[in-house]
Design goal:
It is built from 3 helices and no strands. By secondary structure, the chain is mostly helical. The relative contact order is 0.24.
């Protein structure tokens, strides 16, 4: 079980599941544990909830890592280059 990563506001939930899935897959493809991958997915989904529509026009990896660290009390692993 992974706790939700709280967005700063809720605008539209459309696309959140896709963002979650993308984060999980990126984490797993980088050799992360399922727990860390799901946390990345939850952080990604929290940004999508804040957006009108289904696509993000901008997203900085440092912002995702910071939000996840605030939500879970620890840093996510680094992504493979």
């Amino acid at each position: 079980t992974v706790e939700a990563c709280t967005p700063t506001m809720v605008v539209n939930p459309t696309g959140t599941g896709d963002g979650f899935r993308a984060g999980v897959l990126v984490g797993l493809c980088s050799g992360w544990s399922l727990l860390h991958s799901a946390r990345l997915g939850a952080a990604m989904g929290s940004f999508i909830v804040e957006t009108e529509g289904t696509l993000l026009t901008q997203l900085h990896p440092d912002e995702v890592r910071q939000r996840a660290a605030e939500a879970y009390g620890e840093e996510l692993p680094l992504l493979k280059q």
